[in-house]
Amino acid sequence: MKLPIIIASLLLFAVTCFAQPTGKEPFKQLQKQLATEKDLAKKADLLYQTAQYFLEKEEISKKQLDSAALLNSQLKNISRQADLKKYTALSMMLDGQIAIKKDNYKLAATLHGNALDYAHKYGLKREEAIIYRDAVNYMDDEHMPKKIEHLKKAISLYKEAGAVNDEAETLTELTELYFNASEYDSCTKYALQAIKIKKSIKRPDIYMDYAILAQNYWANGNQKDALACALEAEKIVENVNADAYWVSLTYNLLGVIYAHLKYDDKSIAYYKRAIALAKKSNDDYSAERIALNAAHSLSNKHKFAEAIDLLNGLGYYPGKDCSINCPAIYVLTYCGLKQYDKAKTYYEQLLKCDEGNYTSDSNPETMYFAIIRYLINTGQASKAYTYINKLKKLPTINNNLLDLRELEYNYFRADSATGNYLAALKHYRLSKSLNDSIINLKSRQQFNALQVKYETDKKDKNIKLLTEQGKLQEEKIRNATILRYVFIGSLALLVLFVGLLYNRSRLKQRANKKLELKQQQINEQNDQLKKLLTEKEWLLKEIHHRVKNNLQIVISLLNTQSAYLENKDALMAIQNSQHRMHAMSLIHQKLYQSSNLAAIDMAWYIYELVNYLKECFSADKKIGFKLDTDHVELDVTQAVPLGLILNEAISNAIKYAFITKDSGQITISLKNIEHDTYRLVIADDGVGLPEGFETQERESLGINLMIGLTDQLDGTLTFINNNGLTINILFTRKRQLTEAGVSATN
Known about the structure:
Elements: H1 7-18, H2 24-36, H3 40-55, H4 62-81, H5 85-101, H6 105-121, H7 125-136, H8 144-161, H9 164-180, H10 184-201, H11 206-219, H12 223-237, H13 244-260, H14 264-280, H15 284-300, H16 304-312, H17 325-336, H18 340-353, H19 364-377, H20 381-393, H21 395-398, H22 401-418, H23 421-438, H24 441-496, H25 500-562, H26 568-593, E1 600-601, H27 602-616, E2 622-629, E3 633-634, H28 636-657, E4 663-672, E5 677-684, H29 701-712, E6 716-721, E7 725-732, H30 735-745
Parallel strand pairs: 2-4
Antiparallel strand pairs: 1-3, 4-5, 5-7, 6-7
């Protein structure tokens, strides 16, 4: 079921809070500086900042407005007296702001226009840009094209004036406008420009642009780039003194992305971090919105009790208001618990809030999904079609593959419940098709690669930090040693006056202390090396685990694909590919489970592979297997080709060697015949190869694969066709790689 996406509203709130003016202490400092400043240009700047302090308040009293007007009047006088044209332009802009605070919008527009004309007349590019940018703050969304035009002019003027920081900040504001206007391509374009500039001047607030860009990509259906930008934003906010609202926003965004990718555990972890930050910043509105997302993810993980506790903590009760998000999550959670009597109260609340009575920050698609689930689960499927059709008309549904998949799945459930099985089958196929489009192996690998890259970067950074801390600690120890030597030397000089015996005793003590210090340093270095080695082994295990999982996913996908194929050759090709994938997967599984990360026990591997192939092929014929293998350990570069050769040879023997017989035997032998030379034999007592096989072109993929893999082993391959087929492979073990790997793990 769909998660309610509440990112956009949180972003707007965070931007507003980020731009709030300074608090009481900076204001007192401005007042103090104003009282003592003699330089007119500096005093004009202080007057401007102080007036701005009052005018940037969301709620301003008449007394504060009068103070701002008085300060602006002083600013005008000083600007005329000292011919400070830029402050004259800014004071004209403040006149417009004062008119806005007095709700005289017509006068404000005129005053802003006068200020722009003045700044343009005297070539005050930076001040003209400031006035354009200021005018945007007093336009509503109906004037979105005008707002965008003003910010573009401001950016151009800042660029001409060389005000790079102001240009970067305005680009960020422009990307926000384009995002709110759903103009995603333009949002991407200007966000990348902002990031480029902020990188060049090393601005720490670049995380804001990555967060906006991540939301923009997500809204545009680009999940991979959305996750990449969100992870980049997270990496930055954790290393700078970031605004708490933006950190909370970033964690919430990562929670939403991982929830849609079905990584509910990661999603819940990010939501909890976002909630904690929002509460710490007294942002109850954002905390409540994120808590709803977290409750939904908890419900998806069947952690219903925890989800209910989280919802109960929001203080919502039926009839409180028509914000439909909370009752919708209640309905979904109680339906998951099959407590339909408790769900009914919130279901009835949703019905009351329907027909557009819900609040503007609500998600109607979440409401309809909740109503539909309740109706189908309580045996009222025929009523569900009304809300399915309403859901279908929502523009957000038709622009989102995830929502379309859920829509088709709800159609399928409703049709199944009402007995319309043909329609149910049609909608089920559509739902399955959409699901296959959303979740495919390639995208999964891309998301996993992003996550691995992010975690690796984080690990490298931690290692670098530990190294720097180690160097600092060594420097401290070195300084301490020097001080200790000075002290001991001074003490030794004093002891010389006491006597020779005491001096010798002190020299001995100094030697012992020096040895102890060196031993301590050696122990610390050994502990650090052990820690680094443990981390390396963990990373190698994680890599083998991921490779094994990815191969298993490929096997599962091939198995799924085979269900839609009727061509026997195609089915055979897919099955052969599955066996080859499994042969490689066994190697990585063993490396992940074993304490030895460098070598594979081939006796174990052959036994596991034979059992797997026996299960995969038909048991109509009684085929026995005789295994005779030495204890041989190979590194992964030789184990993989050898495993694939075994897979091909055994599979071919099972399928073709006993066509005319009801039973037979396959013998597999791996022996050490010399110091580093080994012989692999796969023999059967079947029909053998046809006459003239050696002279024919070998078009068989299996034979060609065995020949190619033998070349990888630097070995030789021979076929003996006598009372069946015997395949001999002679190769040399690469002892250097194996021993190096073994020594690394010990």
